[in-house]
Write a structure and sequence with these properties.
heterodimer; A: 222 residues; alpha/beta; 2 domains; 4-stranded parallel beta sheet; 3-stranded antiparallel beta sheet; 7 helices; elongated; B: alpha/beta; 5 helices; globular; binds iron/sulfur cluster
């Protein structure tokens, strides 16, 4: 899922300093699962903003709502029911949701209430870790299912750098060297010989270095 | 500022509030429970929501106390630990909003009626009196 975190409330208060009525719009997709922007977080943010604005002596009207997703056109259409009732939308979806609203409603002032951080999973309750960087040319079949693009600090493709010490990455003592893990995994699978194969220089265009990416499924377009 | 009657909202679980609620409000006050303190009972500390605690401040509380079972002796196993985490989240939220984090406190008490239950609210009353009314009460 896409993992996000609420922005500091001071930053949000600053963004909406001129607004008298705000629609806080949660998303029941990824950000709900990572507890950054679902219904519960909408409720919490609404309360924090009301408290913050009362303190500033500028009370604010807030509409609280959530969409099934903010990354699909048909769900965005439902925001029209609040037309004329808000000065700004504070979207608690990932950046995709904010962009979608901005694309589809040119006259709506939409603002991000979360920082979209990474693609990850919940490794234990309340903890999320990055696992994939969406590079568009997956190599997990060569690395025992462990991603060197997202999980190696340098995105190296041919084994660890010289900073790998006792299985730990040189950037921080709490970061495992993913190449050490790849080696152990491949060894366990009896596939260590495959690691001698050199990975060619990569073409990073598929990773977004060639501009914004688009996926088209001709069989689904009517 | 110390002559005002602080609005103190005490949130407690079914077990820690049992006896306190059995006694009449007058009886509780005779034991020293502050006049401006109000008990909000939830079935379990784990049921307490961050938003309900924040809402108490939104609605004019000067201080909030959360009371739940001892950490290792919660009737519902993890409820009181969850309550403590949520009180902690509200403490952080208050700090983020430049409000005194001391306006919320967490307590773990044995079930039944204990003087500590009253003390918890008294201590909050003292603290709030020293800090003054919540700055968000202002003019509505
Ligand atoms: S808008 Fe973002 S957070 Fe919401 S479902 Fe879509 S991708 Fe996930
Ligand atoms: S190789 Fe690319 S697509 Fe595969 S997991 Fe890593 S970043 Fe994601």
């Amino acid at each position: 899922m896409i993992v996000a975190e609420r922005k500091p409330v001071g930053e949000i208060l600053k963004m909406i300093s001129d607004a008298k009525r705000v629609l806080i719009l949660g998303c029941r997709g990824c950000v709900s699962v990572c507890s950054a922007g679902g219904e519960r977080e909408v409720e919490i943010l609404a309360s924090m903003l009301k408290v913050g604005r009362k303190k500033e002596g500028k009370p604010i009207e807030i509409i609280e709502a959530s969409l099934v997703r903010q990354c699909d056109k048909e769900y965005i259409d439902s925001i029209d029911q609040w037309d004329g009732q808000f000065d700004a939308i504070l979207s608690m979806a990932c950046g995709v949701g904010v962009n979608f609203i901005a694309n589809l409603r040119p006259m709506v002032n939409v603002l991000p209430a979360v920082n979209t951080s990474f693609f990850g999973g919940s490794s234990e309750q309340g903890v999320w870790t990055e696992q994939c960087a969406g590079c568009g040319d997956c190599v997990l079949h060569l690395t025992g299912g462990l991603c060197p693009v997202a999980r190696c600090a340098k995105s190296l493709m041919n084994g660890p750098c010289g900073g790998s010490q006792d299985g730990v990455c040189e950037i921080h003592k709490d970061v495992p060297c993913i190449w050490q893990s790849v080696y152990e995994k491949m060894n366990g699978l009896g596939r260590q010989q495959e690691m001698l194969e050199l990975a060619p220089i990569r073409d990073w265009r598929s990773a977004g270095h060639g501009g914004p990416r688009t996926a088209v499924r001709d069989d689904l377009t009517v | 500022m110390s002559d005002f009657t602080p609005n103190i909202q005490v949130f407690c679980c079914h077990y820690t509030s049992q006896q306190a609620l059995a006694v009449s409000p007058e009886g509780l006050q005779a034991d020293g429970f502050p006049a401006g303190a109000n008990i909000n009972r939830v079935v379990c500390g784990g049921k307490l929501k961050v938003s309900s605690l924040l809402k108490a401040f939104e609605d004019g509380a000067d201080g909030v106390c959360v009371v739940a079972c001892p950490e290792d002796k919660c009737h519902n196993l993890m409820g009181s630990q969850r309550a403590a985490k949520r009180a902690g989240a509200v403490k952080k939220a208050l700090a983020e909003l430049d409000l005194e984090p001391e306006r919320i406190s967490m307590h773990h008490l044995e079930r039944g009626f204990h003087q500590e239950f009253v003390t918890v609210a008294q201590e909050m009353e003292q603290r709030v009196k020293a800090m003054g009314p919540s700055p968000i009460k202002g003019e509505e």
